[in-house]
Inverse folding.
């Protein structure tokens, strides 16, 4: 509080100084407000563009979410096609589910290794290594997936469509989200109070017993936050998935068959459809869906962390 | 007694077994990263051919220039804006509903998929202005992407400074703003720089946000110095495909260029090398920051 008093008093003797103070204060405040305006603007435009499918073109939300009949008309001001996006949605769900299935056990094990088993190597080697993993651009992951993984799947599993498959997309996504989950899980594990471990060791537990019965349960909410964040990242990833998924508009009948997903469809068709047409609007609706999902993930993370605070308080 | 002995032995065996598994996962992790980075870099360098650095259709000179120019423009927008917002949050904003809402906005912004940001950029900077794909729209999209990170780094950096810095400066008669500019910001410059470098690194590799903003082609005439001309390299209002986007385009339009695979390999290698350099730089910077703050104690 004392700093505030000094602040109020000292510039008052020099009006020019005071003016400068106010000027900069207002300027940085405007920059803060600008961020809010920007976020609201993005939300507004997405809702505005994405809702035309349902308001102007009179499709039901249920049709968009659950029908697989995708045949929107691509010219301005005509409607009457079908905008069932189920194939894209299911494609996204399948690839992300597979990615989680691969990445989660591995990430948690890596997080435990770098915190509980070998913390020295954890901070010296693993931390920077995860950062590098995080930094590699998604197109590069996509390109490596395209040049190594896809031919590999083609040759080993004799997949149709030359290896473009859910499996390839799932593996690429797993590699991309695993640093996120690892970093957040490691942070959660580190924040478990040391007294918990000492108490468990004191009654004769082995290290694995401490990890399994004390450390993992105590850091569960942080690990969950990491998984949700990883999932939302996987859902929004566009180009890497588009490169290896095969972009075939059909439900996949096995893990080795190609399909398509929301982001790949948006990335490939947004530029070549007529602006304002039914096709274009349907793509915006998909973008709106991505936006809503990313908002839900944020709400979930907040919910988890607030629940954790409550249980810790009790 | 015997039963107990057995269960202890069993617990110990399981413990050893699990330790082995964790070492295995840790080792696999490192080997995988080394393999991945090594593969990308070595394969990229092996794909080199003499024209690769040229500013022609077969080279990546133009794309490399566009990437650097675009990231530079993006930082020019996002660094002052993000730093100002960070200063506001750390020094001026009162704890309350507004600050909470601002934090939620930043969090939402940072978690949005980059393709969604790209679409927003496409709508607002391209469709609504009636312009063609241009580098400046791309720079704006990338600056939206990097804004949250720069803001939060600045805020955290200022907040983590010892209270004595601010109090000392003000006790000497400096105003609040003078304290911010002359004391607080200079002290945490290297930490803010770390954040800026990280976001710059992300900008270099960004592609999804640029797909429909910066455009997927580039046409530069290096002897053209008329900045309003669409082929002048320095004109920000021209289509400016970046290196990361070039990899994507080489995949789709691969058949048009016999060197497509080589170009994509080499571009990937350059991007990964850039990421490595940036990550080493940030390490050095943050170590310097820690020493500086540590010495002040």
């Amino acid at each position: 509080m004392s700093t505030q008093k000094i602040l109020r008093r000292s510039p008052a003797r020099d009006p020019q100084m005071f003016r400068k103070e106010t000027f900069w204060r207002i300027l940085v405040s405007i920059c803060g407000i600008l961020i809010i305006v920007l976020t609201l603007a993005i939300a507004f435009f997405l809702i505005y563009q994405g809702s035309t499918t349902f308001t102007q073109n009179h499709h039901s939300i249920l049709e968009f979410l659950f029908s697989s009949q995708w045949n929107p008309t691509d010219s301005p001001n005509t409607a009457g096609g079908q905008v069932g996006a189920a194939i894209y949605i299911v494609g996204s769900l399948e690839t992300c589910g597979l990615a989680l299935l691969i990445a989660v056990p591995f990430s948690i094990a890596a997080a435990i290794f770098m915190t509980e088993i070998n913390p020295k190597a954890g901070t010296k080697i693993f931390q920077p290594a995860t950062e590098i993993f995080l930094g590699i651009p998604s197109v590069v992951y996509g390109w490596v997936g395209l040049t190594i993984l896809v031919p590999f799947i083609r040759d080993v599993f004799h997949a149709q469509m030359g290896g473009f498959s859910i499996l390839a997309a799932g593996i690429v996504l797993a590699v991309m989200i695993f640093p996120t989950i690892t970093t957040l899980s490691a942070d959660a594990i580190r924040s478990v109070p040391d007294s918990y471990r000492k108490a468990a060791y004191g009654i004769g537990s082995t290290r694995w017993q401490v990890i399994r019965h004390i450390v993992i349960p105590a850091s569960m909410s942080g690990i969950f936050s990491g998984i949700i964040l990883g999932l939302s990242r996987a859902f929004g990833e566009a180009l890497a998935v588009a490169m290896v998924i095969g972009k075939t508009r059909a439900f996949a009948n096995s893990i080795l068959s190609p399909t398509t997903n929301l982001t790949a469809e948006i990335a490939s068709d947004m530029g070549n459809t007529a602006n304002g047409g039914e096709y274009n609007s349907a793509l915006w609706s998909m973008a709106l869906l991505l936006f809503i999902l990313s908002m839900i993930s944020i709400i979930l993370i907040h919910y988890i962390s607030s629940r954790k605070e409550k249980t810790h308080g009790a | 007694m015997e039963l107990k002995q057995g269960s202890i032995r069993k617990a110990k065996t399981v413990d050893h077994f699990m330790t082995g598994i964790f070492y295995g996962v840790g080792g696999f992790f490192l080997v995988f990263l080394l393999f991945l980075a090594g593969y990308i870099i070595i394969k990229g360098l092996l794909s080199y051919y003499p024209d690769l650095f040229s500013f022609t259709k077969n080279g990546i000179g133009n794309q490399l220039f566009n990437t650097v120019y675009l990231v530079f423009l993006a930082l020019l927008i996002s660094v002052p804006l993000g730093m100002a917002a960070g200063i506001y949050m750390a020094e001026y904003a009162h704890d309350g509903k507004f600050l909470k809402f601002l934090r939620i906005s930043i969090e939402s912004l940072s978690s949005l998929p980059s393709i969604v940001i790209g679409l927003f950029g496409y709508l607002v900077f391209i469709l609504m202005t009636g312009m063609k794909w241009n580098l400046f729209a791309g720079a704006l999209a990338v600056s939206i992407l990097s804004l949250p990170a720069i803001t939060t780094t600045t805020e955290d950096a200022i907040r983590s400074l010892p209270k004595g810095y601010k109090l000392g400066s003000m006790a000497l008669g400096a105003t609040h703003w003078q304290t911010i500019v002359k004391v607080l910001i200079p002290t945490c410059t290297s930490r803010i720089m770390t954040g800026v470098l990280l976001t710059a690194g992300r900008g270099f590799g960004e592609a999804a946000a640029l797909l429909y903003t910066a455009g997927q082609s580039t046409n530069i005439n290096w002897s053209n110095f008329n900045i309003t001309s669409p082929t002048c390299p320095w004109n920000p209002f021209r289509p400016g495909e970046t290196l990361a986007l070039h990899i994507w385009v080489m995949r789709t339009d691969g058949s048009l260029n016999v060197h497509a695979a080589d170009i994509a390999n080499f571009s990937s290698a350059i991007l990964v090398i850039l990421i490595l350099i940036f990550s080493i730089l940030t390490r050095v910077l943050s170590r310097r920051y820690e020493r500086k703050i540590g010495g002040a104690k």
Chain B touches chain A through 86 residues (CB under 8 Å).
